[in-house]
Structure formats: structure tokens, C-alpha cells
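Demo today. Your pick:
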Amino acid sequence: MLKESLQKIGLDEKAAEIYLTVLKNGPSSLRKVSELSGINRGTAYNILKELVLRGLLEQFDKEKKQHFVASNPEKLLKDLEQREEELASSKLAVKKLLPELKSLYDDAGGKPKAQYFEGKKGVKKILQDLLVTLSSLPVSERSYQVYSTDEVKSFLYECYPEFTDKRIKGEIEVEVISLSPGGKLCGLDKRKWVKSNLAPCPTYILLYADKVALITKAMPRRSGATVAGNEVMTVLIDSPEITETQKVIFSALWNKL
């Protein structure tokens, strides 16, 4: 219990073990600390030196050997206060740097950022990102567009069954162009269908905020070989320019259906 508490205030597991060893056993040589703590002498020595620098232990020579003794435990509080001051100073320094760092980030804004995911966890990550991203916007701007296909649609529900309920609760609207028959309205959604005999469409596309997500489910190869049914690849592209172009195409098709 004591060791866990010490870890919470900044000592790692080995440092906490060595500190308690010295505290319990009084003045101790390096050899004694190593034997009692079960930590090899090289590591123990480095930790002892660090604890001395932090004021939690004191060092003295006895019979030409270095010994260590615990400082008043109240030093733990002073050590924590010092670390808090250093953290506050670091936080202030970061705040001062943010404008310059953000400027560099914005300068690189024209470069699309892409992430790649695999499997159900990747799909759920995308859907969660959609909810979080749109929920941070004003209600009037909480909407997105979808190209839906049977080959992937049902798989999305398996990955994140509660998605639609959370979408509706978050007052997020969606326009869906379905590339295959079927589909039902669930709330805050509109749906139109492309009426044609399309070949299987293995890619489900979402357009939201400044992002385009493409969720692709593996299809049988021409050679007749198949891949695992759960092999799903997701690509998330973060680019205002690419997303805006896709939204223009979506709107043009939507208005013609």
C-alpha cells in the first residue's frame, strides 16, 4: 500500500522499493540496500543517488563506505511541491510556444494527413471520431454525408451497435446516398438511392468536418481465392480541400436523385 502511494506521487516502482527499504532499516550501505530490496547494485546505486538529489535520502561515509539514510518524510511533500512548481513552469512555457507551434502546424495545413486502420477496432475508432468531431460543433453544423453499401453497412453496426443512438442523441444529421437497395430511416437522417445495376461496392464512404473516411471490406479475388471476411481496411484523410471536393460531388449527385 505504501509503495503504491509513493508511486502515485512520482516514484517509480524500484525507487519506491529502495526508499522504503532505507526508511525501514535505517542507515544502510549500498550492499545492504541491494540485498534487502532485491534490486541489483548498479540500479540501486543510481536510484539512491537520485533520491539523494531529490532530498529524500541523505548520504554519508562510514568505515570508508557510502551509507544512506532517509530524510524526514516531510521532505516528500516538499519534493511534490517542487515538482508541481516545475510542472506549472513547463505548462507556462508550452503556452508561450503554442502560437509559434500552431503557426507551423497551419503552414503545413495544405498537406493531407492520412491514417490507416485495420479490423473492427479501426472502424469503431472512425465512428467515434465522427461523433466527437461533430459534437464539438454548433448544432446547426452537425451533419455529414455517406455513400452507403450493403457490403459494408451491416459490418459497421457490428463494430459499433450503439452508434446510431449516440448520433441521434448528439443531434447529428446525416444524408445517405445508398449504392444498394434497402436501408431504413432511424431519425435525423435522409436517404436517396442510386437506381442502377451496380457491381458490388465494397467501400463505405463518410464525409464529415474536414475528413473523408473510406471503409473497405475485402472481396474475393479474381483468381477465386478469398480473404478473411473480417479483413477490413479503413483510411482516414484529414484535408479540407479533398473533403470539400467530395462534398461538392455528393451534393451534385444528391440533387439529381
